[in-house]
Amino acid sequence: MAENNYAINYDDERFKSVNNEKQDRLNEVNNTYNNMISQSDQYYQKQIDAAKDYATTQQDLQNQQTQLAIDEINQQKEKANKDYLKEQRGAYSDWQKESNRYGVNAEQQAASGLRNAGYSESSQVSMYNTYQNRVSTARESYNLAIQNYDNGIREARLQNNSKLAEIAYQALQTELELSLNGFQYKNQLLLDQVNKQQEIDNTYYNRWQNVLSQMNTENAMAESIRQYNEKMAEEQRQYNESMAENVRQYNTTFDENVRQYNEKMAYQKERDKVADKQWEKEYKLAKKAASSSKKRSSSGGGTSVNLTNGSSKNGTLAAQNNTNSSSSSSGTSSWSLQQFVDYYKGSGYSDKEAKKLAEESYNKIHSKSSGASHTSAGRKDSTVHKATSTPKLSTKVADGIFNTVSKKSYTKKSDLEKDLDRYIISSSDKSKIIKAFGF
Length: 439
Description:
Layout: H1 13-99, H2 104-112, H3 118-293, H4 313-325, H5 337-346, H6 351-369, H7 376-381, H8 396-405, H9 413-421, H10 427-436
Helix pairs in contact: 1-3, 3-4, 3-8, 5-6
């Protein structure tokens, strides 16, 4: 039994096609999701940058507002400083007016007789104290205002820092929220990408398995065909051997039959020779008797020659020839059809062949005596065909069949066909064998 070799060829174009299509789909999905991730990163980064820009803008506005408040406080400080200097100059001016020896107040005191008196001195002291008090009060008011204004500035700056911190905190919260959203969205895209890759991998794995299953089915089918062909070849071999044995047995039987037939025919020929001599002797006696008596007619019932059932075919042909040359000189001219049949059966022919030959002999004798000529069909039936060439046949069995039938001769094509129909042979080989016999 031949050994099969049906290993899976993993370099098959069908495997390559599945792998190439899978890689194309993976590249397509990866490109799509990579673009989405890149666009997502850009989007959230723009949102974060926008939040930072907004915070910076808010901080700038807050700083401007704080600076405006500080500037207003500084303006009030300058006004307080101006008011203090003004009050200081006014107090000094009033004191100078009151303490001027030549001023209006001095003239009034002089007119009242109080100049250079104790009251005048007391008045000078009182006016200086008033001046000093006014200056001191103005200074305290100025210092208190400056202190309040400085506290306002510090408070504004503290509030500004607090507001700036709040803006920074809110900006940081926004940035963190956007970063978290971007991370979650990006992470979801990555998960979707992995799932899509797994889905594609599963799909093309199933297709790869389908190709593998198809190739296994093809290999199984090839193995079934191989086993079937091997089985048919073995059956054909056994059939050919059986046919060859049948042909051999047939040839052996046929050769034995031919040998027996030839022995029988040889024996029959010897009997025919004796019969011919006996017939000639009888014919001469009959002719002599006819000459001496001169009473029998040449076409009438002369001395008949009785050919017994043991006569041969040669004797029959001789009798027929004598009958053809002279109907009065042969005793067979008066034979009935049954006598001819009995004669041929006694010569070794079968019932069918004896009947056929008897009819031919009977018809020839009677057609000759009536003046009729031989028919063309009779002449044709008497033609003997033998194999004149060796045809080129398709099988040794056909050659053996030809060797068997070529040992025989045929007068009719139908007889040869009947012999060939006993065998299993193709129509073309059958036609070649018939043609080799000249039919």
